[in-house]
């Protein structure tokens, strides 16, 4: 998800018959079969209830439009209407959804259900209430803003690493298990002022390989040079995320190689304090650890994939930093 819109609206209704635009089904029996749930402990709803829900656009991205849908029962879900699927067979889509629907982890956005016909493909997820990391880092900077402190940023990064490890273990046969890791696809919620992060929009790359240049991995050196992608392509994207969290600078569509080069230049020139987001610059106890994160980020964004660390190594280093922070706080 890359951009938000505040205006609330009803789902479009120019589709087949009087169904919403994203519904390719007109038969009640077919609808019941096509809205497939992955588990039984979630409240179950049918396609009619979903289409009649009030909706708000959460974002428009490479994969399509994502809506926040509030059903009449009060249940709130996120609904992604997948676009760019003309080359997909229903069999391919359903197979990948079944793989993704089995994934259960506290750092992955949970898939509840999906709907698949020849013309329409919807994926229904749990709704994560406090927005994306992109919004928390870059939204409404100015008077009245509550910035993300360094401890919170570090906790989010650790959660992202944990989620990636699960994806890489569960989807080990897929070349790039996430494929679209960026701050807008890291969703955050808070409990008692503690941040928790969940990864979203994972697992779509095998369905749309011809569009990989438009995914986050499209900026990896190996993709730009037409070489093969690997699990280390996700690591590169994680490195860019580390830099974004550290510097407060959004990578953007065209300049995130510039961000990595800028950070390398600053480190080489020993202007280390110029690296940090002004919102965390005042947290002097964390400066040494921030520099360690910068070093880790530069390792993750090495041009040669084999020189990048693996995710287990990354998580270990993040946990070591967090442990030092806790020790300092106790002392």
Write the layout of secondary structure elements.
Elements: E1 8-10, H1 28-34, E2 35-37, H2 47-51, E3 54-61, E4 64-70, E5 76-82, H3 90-101, E6 111-116, E7 121-126, H4 133-138, H5 150-170, E8 186-191, E9 194-199, H6 221-224, H7 231-247, H8 256-268, H9 278-281, H10 287-300, H11 311-330
Antiparallel strand pairs: 1-3, 2-6, 3-4, 4-5, 5-7, 6-7, 8-9
Helix pairs in contact: 5-7, 5-11, 7-10, 10-11
Structural summary, described in words:
Helix content is 37%, strand content 16%. With 331 residues, the chain is of the alpha+beta class. The chain has two domains: 8-126, Phosphorylase Kinase, domain 1 (2-Layer Sandwich); 133-330, Transferase(Phosphotransferase), domain 1. The protein has a seven-stranded antiparallel beta sheet.
Quote the distance from N terminus to C terminus.
Answer: 41 Å
CATH architecture of the largest domain: Orthogonal Bundle
Oligomeric organization of the protein chains? single chain
Side-by-side strand order of the widest sheet: 1-3-4-5-7-6-2
Q: Given this structure, which CATH class of the largest domain is correct?
A: Mainly Alpha
Radius of gyration: 21 Å
pLDDT average, as an integer?
83
Proportion in β-strands: 15-25%
Number of helices: 11
Largest pleated sheet = 7 strands, antiparallel
Superfamily (CATH H level) name of the largest domain: Transferase(Phosphotransferase) domain 1
CATH fold type of the largest domain: Transferase(Phosphotransferase), domain 1
> Which spans have pLDDT < 50 for at least 5 consecutive residues?
1-33
Order of helices and strands, N to C? Answer: EHEHEEEHEEHHEEHHHHHH
Based on Cα principal axes, name the global outline.
globular
Number of strand segments = 9
How many structural domains can be distinguished in the coordinates?
A: 2
Q: State the helicity in percent bands.
A: 25-40%
Structural class: alpha+beta
């Amino acid at each position: 998800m890359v951009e938000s819109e505040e205006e609330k609206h009803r789902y479009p209704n120019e589709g087949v018959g009087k169904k919403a635009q994203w519904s390719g089904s007109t038969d009640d029996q077919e609808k019941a079969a096509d809205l497939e749930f992955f588990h039984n402990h979630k409240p179950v709803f049918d396609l009619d209830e979903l289409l009649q829900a009030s909706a708000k656009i959460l974002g428009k991205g490479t994969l399509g439009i994502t809506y926040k849908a509030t059903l009449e029962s009060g249940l709130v879900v996120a609904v992604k209407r997948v676009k760019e699927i003309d080359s997909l067979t229903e069999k391919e889509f359903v197979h990948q959804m079944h793989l993704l629907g089995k994934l259960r982890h506290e750092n992955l956005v949970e898939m509840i259900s999906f709907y698949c016909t020849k013309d329409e493909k919807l994926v229904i997820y749990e709704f994560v209430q406090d927005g994306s990391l992109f919004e928390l880092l870059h939204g409404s900077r100015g008077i009245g803003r509550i910035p993300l402190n360094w401890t919170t940023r570090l906790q989010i990064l650790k959660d992202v690493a944990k989620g990636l490890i699960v994806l890489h273990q569960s989807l080990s046969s897929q070349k790039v298990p996430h494929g679209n890791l960026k701050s807008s696809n890291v969703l955050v919620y808070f409990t008692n002022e503690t941040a928790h992060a969940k990864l979203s929009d994972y697992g779509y790359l095998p369905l749309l390989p011809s569009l990989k240049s438009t995914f986050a991995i499209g900026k990896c050196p190996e993709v730009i040079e037409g070489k093969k992608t690997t699990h280390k392509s996700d690591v590169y994207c994680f490195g860019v995320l580390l830099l974004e969290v550290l510097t407060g600078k959004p990578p953007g569509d065209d300049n995130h190689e510039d961000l990595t080069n800028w950070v390398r230049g600053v480190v080489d020139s020993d202007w280390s304090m110029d690296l940090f987001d002004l919102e965390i610059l005042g947290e002097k106890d964390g400066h040494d650890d921030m520099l360690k994160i910068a070093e880790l980020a530069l390792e993750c964004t090495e041009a040669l994939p084999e020189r990048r660390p693996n995710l287990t190594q990354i998580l270990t280093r993040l946990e070591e930093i967090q442990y030092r922070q806790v020790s300092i706080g106790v002392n």
